[in-house]
Batch of 4 targets.
Target 1
Amino acid sequence: MPKKGEKKAKEVDDVPDQQEKKLPDYLELQRTRVSCKADAPIHCAYAAMGVDNSMSVEKFRKNFKIEINRLTEDDMEFDMIGVDASIANAFRRILIAEVPTMAIEKIFMVDNTSVIADEVLSHRLGLIPLDADPRRFEYMSENDVPNERNTIVYKLHVSCEKGSQRITVKSGELEWLPEGSQLNMSSPAQSGDKQKTFTSFSQSQKEIYEKPLGVKFKDITIARLGPGQAIELEAHAVKGVGKVHAKWSPVATAWYRMLPEVVLLKEIEGDDAEELVKKCPVNVFDIEDLGNVCTRNTKETCTTFLSRKRAVVAKPRACTLCRECVMCPTGEHIELRRVRDHFIFTIESTGAMPPEVLFTEAVKILEEKCERVIAELS
């Protein structure tokens, strides 16, 4: 009779044989796809059937890949294949809340006679995207002194003369001050003392950074000034993350969806096909012309022909799963699915960094988190 330890060893040796087993087609479809019907989802214990459905490093290395479909200066769309939804959602949350950017944090208001309150004006300034690479800057804590490595200073001084027309103050009016703050904290104690400002720059930022640290978009409306009104202020931008305040979020939005699949279980022809094409709001279906068909039994003496048409799935990727097609009379012949491990990921940058750089930074942050967890467990 085998010992207890020998039995366990045999069970472990049998695991590879269990992983090689395959499910029936209908169960494999259920394991890899999500059917979009009105019914509740069906769960199955795949391990009881000898199939390992767990996530492993080997499976990830074998199946994972990224395919870029669209890449512009401000947004990108790519396919993330071979990952679980939790991984895709981790990237989404990191992009929104944990990739740092530079944003205006402090406003030193000198004069504001516009109709916009100081608090509202400060909030609007904080949401203006800045053309500054946050990787070149340091975080500033409560005890740190604002310097050229952790702070960017801007000045806004705009006025509308009396008797003139109203003017619109745009974000392009913000002037970068590479030498630091120009506002004095207090008057010097003696006439020969140097006036102290709100920053302590040891050198000009022009000597450190290759390009001017301006705003990304110069046509954002900040306020409108009437005759005799003016705004004078100084704005200090620091490095931060979106989970502290949304102004530091580097993306306008980051989202994903499973790759849709549209399957015709039976051919849909004639008027039903044309009705199906009209029913879809995003033009997933199209009409395929099958040629003329004789309406009589004998083709030799046929004089009347009928054009035969059928519906085909032309753009399945455009499907939004609105379910309009499955609610039409031919809906029982259509099945909508989503691939469980195939995600269409979209990143829209606010302009601080290109979208491909944002995703790279998100990968680095996730890697740092994993290393931190491993270090804590070891």
Note: The longest strand covers residues 334-349.
Target 2
Amino acid sequence: MARTKQTAGRTTSGYAKPAQLSGRKRHRSSSTENLTSRSSSPLSSCPPSPELQLTTISKESNTFCYLCHDGGRTFICSNIACPRIVCDVCINVPESIATRLGNQEISFKCPACHEKEERATHSKPMPYFAFTQVVQGKSVPACSTPTFVKGVCERASKSQVRGGPILIVHFVCMGLNTRGGIPRLLNAALEEYYTEDTLRYLEVVFDFGTRCKLRHWQAEAQRLATTIGEDTFQQKIFFISVHSEVTRGDLFAGKDEGGDDVAVLPKEFMDYLFAGRLQLLVNGATLFMLSCGPLVAFPQSICSFKEALLELRPAYTIAFGATRFIGAVIKSFIVAFGSRVVIQGHDLGEVFTDLLNVSVELPMHTDAYLFQVEEQMASGAPNPSSSASNIKGMRYSWYHTHRRPWGCPLPMSCPKCGSIRSWSPSKQGEDTSGAPGRISTCQSPACGFQIFSHQPRSYQVIKLKVGEGMGWIKQAGI
């Protein structure tokens, strides 16, 4: 049956003393070895249409038409693996089929599934018959003429308009100013597509800098988990706004009895923050670390952080490498994330570079880190549940021949003569030991001071379609 439904249409780093809050021995590892572990919406102005009756569906379908992102009278794709819907404004419904749409034998195939079938069979473009029926065991068009698609898809063919429910939780370290923060921007960008029932935003301030405060937080975390309720969310997004300690990469836990800042290893921090049943909610989520670069600058802190991720098992984690990270520079990134990943349903790993490319201020300010928890079948495992996990870490650095050769930012002033932005386009060269890299030379008269930028050992260059001498350097094995 062709199923239908009606839809209406900022942080800095600092110094802090190390803390032991739970009595456990503080262990630091200098190893960076690989770690393993055993509706109503303002979008639509279309009034409800009585022509098609809403049917009960057994799968999660989108809320809005994937072609125009609007609502109204929509058709649900009959492919059980496809959540897309198409509205009657974007697709022409022949009169001969309009009265038969409620019949059990009529099926609807969306344009995206039609294109997917063509790619799978490597066939040439074929006429699109949206409505089919089974005759003598074979699927045949339900009408004699192909279906005309009136809509214009301005997005990738893999796009959809996901209907939620969405959970956004922002954890804020006590004392941080988050006015106009990035998580709120994401929530505002999504409000047009989701209702109060399908988009939930929570902001939670934490301080577990003493053992007494830690016990209080653990109880508070349990109450928070109860408030959130059962994990039925299509997307879960966690933001953590926290200071990072500049000499070790530890994360601030809060204030001690004397009012001084205290910090703990990233693994301990994540254990404390996601106490009790909160830990279960992180599984499969997207995690944003709104913290400064020391977190990913020290082998010990990276190792500890990855250990925490293996236990929590978020699908993706994003962190940033600037020593004094300013959250405002990722505004374009977070809005694009909301559109491409949350709404349209693209995999974050596949579109991460695209999101970086639309971020105007981010490239010159900070490197970006993407961590992914990957499931691996254990050798000789009898069933799919017998699996192990590992962390794939990638670093994205912006390179520019004038200012960031091999992703290494050049100082604004020449250390020798003090001239401003006097660096020449870098050229290939070698240092005194013969290691490859690029040489930047001060062009001020009678100066000629040179800076050598080393070439990464293992990297992939992602060039832009426009512009020469710039792009992203992707390094794996972080």
Note: Residues 1 and 105 are 5 Å apart (CA to CA).
Target 3
Amino acid sequence: MEDPRTGSPRRAAGEEAKSAVGHRSDVRFQRRVAAVCSPAVAAARLTLPGVMDAEGRVDESRLRMHIFKNGGVSPSERGLVWRFLFGMYPCSSTALERSLLQEQLIMRYQVMKRKWQQFLPSAVRMHLNGTDAELVAAVRYFDQRQTQAQQQTQDQSEEVRDRLAFLELQAQILFERVTFDQRELREATRIIDKDVPRTNRDLSYYQGEGSGNLLVLRDILITYAAFHPEVSYAQGMNDLCSRFLEVLDSEVDTFWSFSCYMEKFSKDFRADGLHRKIELEAALLKELDPQLYAHLVTDSMESFTFCHRWLLLGFQREFEHSDALRLFEILSCDHLELISQQVDQARYQERLARKFSAEDSSESTLQAINTDFTFELFICAAILLENREALLRCRDDVQLIQFTSSLQGTLDLNSTLKKAERHLYNYCKRCAWDYMNGHCRENKSKEVDFLYQLRSLLVLK
């Protein structure tokens, strides 16, 4: 199926940018239901130094470097940054192009949502048993927001309505041949209706009128499941999508940003993908601490399955909420993953340069940097190593789960980041040193230069 985020609408949005950041902050403070869309954000500017040019294009490498080096971005800029970071807005787009794209994304989402609602009308409203007073109130707040959105649509100028009508026709043609499996969609909706009320309602975002955001979250998840049947819905997606909704405070923008994120990470919600990630964590800990690794893989333990939630949700509950958001964007900037690939490429170039050397005629068996060791795995390893003694005292998986559960909300992010960076740096240095010892003994300056460049790449001071 064609990527619904591509294509070009005929005319410009024609709406002036308001103070998008301030507007979002006010809405969040008043704890109202999220907006359907946020067209003003498309023309907003980032104040991060050297990241956005005069026409609104973003230097993606500088943006990701800024996030990593500064430990995230300020809450006032996070919403706009995430729209670029997760791919809803192409970094190469200008402010004008984003205004065009924003209208297109709005209409496509509305057509997608309407299509599954018409196919499965019984799922349009969440079925309540009346015992959850907060959910009953949430439905009322959500309905009020729907009424306000309809009124705003009626108040649009004729020019805007004509333009949106054309975009709506485009979207209808795009999704005309999409079909749904009724049984699968019903099952996905059933699970979503069980999980959404379990989303962390202690967050201020879901307090008061903000409880209506639970219904917004529900619509986003059902729309995603309907149009991504190969992924559908899996438990935990509600917590993940909730992050996007809280930060972006827009139904349409949350759907597209969450969809972009899932393009890369949907495999983590499948059994094989999660099993692979746990295997990698075990392999990394074996490199860093063989004794702790051996203890955790004994018969009385269930290997590293206790790390399941950490890795699946990006340590959402292990850190204080604002720190968990920072960590999520740090992990998502992929900075160290890209660096690891650069290091591996540098080593490959060294081997290529010596390809025809007589002393290097035999195939090297030296250890290679494993670029599958992503930074989140080093974060996980840092937490395990910091609590090494307590883990060694655990004798079965029940004690393991009890201990790891006790860590919720207690970890210090800055300290954990420093330890994870150090473990990653030492791992890369050891691999690089193994190579240099084997291939560059005759040239000491190359050893020093290679490690200096490695240290610079890892941005460690």
Note: The chain has 20 helices and no strands.
Target 4
Amino acid sequence: MNMTSPLPTTYSRVVCVKQTFDFAQGTVVERDASMADLEAQLAANPTLVLIQARILGLNASDVNYIKGSYDPKAKPPYTAGFEALGKVVRVGAKVTAVKVGDCVGTMSFGAFSEFIVLPERLVFPIPEIRPEYLGLMVNGLTAYLALHKTTPRGVEPGMKVLVTGAVGATGQIAVQVAKAAGCHVIGTCGNEDKAVQLRALGADRAINYRTEDVGKVLRSEYRRGVDLVFEGIGGKMFEQALASLSPRGNLIVIGAASTYHAEGRIDELWQDKVPTYLLLHKSIGVVGFFLNHYAKDIPEAWTWLVKTFAKGKLQVAVDPTPFFGLDQVKDAVAYMQTGKNIGKIVVDLRKGNSKL
């Protein structure tokens, strides 16, 4: 194990102590986690990397993870979170892709922690610690891979693509991925500020669902239907999006954010129905997307995202609302659940109450 500067004897992390949709009630900040435990893992496995986290990224899935929806076998206590940027502080003897001092990102269970130990294959080298890179990981990879890999045609020039929740952290990337492929893009959002942002991202039509009826707009302005839907809201939005598909069109389900604010099992809350007669009548398809199932395609997607971002051809909006330290993770989650954010919500561990 490559050794450099001394590590603290303890570190802090956000731990799930009760499985509930209420992140604040279900988690605590543990301030005396043992660094010796992480060092023992490194000593036992030469392919592991130890990262000192600097910035955390939030996702709607953080709530599902605390609820126990993703892994029924997971029982508290366990560390919350999926995304972090940081610097490598230790590497195992067989690690070759990164070295101590490198800037990296990771999207793995247990990311809401000052220090994270994980396999080398789960870290992404990045040029510098910038919050925008958080928007390229879970969100960017989901957008790129769902649009390009889940349906027979993917995205092609001239397609009409509908993106729901289009100014969220994932939706904003999906809009731009579709535009880069030469598509006509329609996006839904919840206020005029978001509509302005959506048009700035390149969307051809922004639909504010609070002032316009999404279904009526799609029926009147896109009478032949849309070719592809990128859908992460569920409920009425799902129904309207499904009805908008053209013959041989496809709808990709990436989530159901409308169900994330209530207690209960995911199969009880997520009650969207797909009428099979409609599938037959229009020869349409509905397909789900879960990022873990596309691991082999991640290198292709990550390369495109990083290069396109570096060229200034991909915008990653980071919400300006500031959150600092692990104590404010719960506040950041609560803010995310209001739906007011424009872009990626991040928590900076370089300020606040952390040891960093």
Note: The longest helix spans residues 298-310.
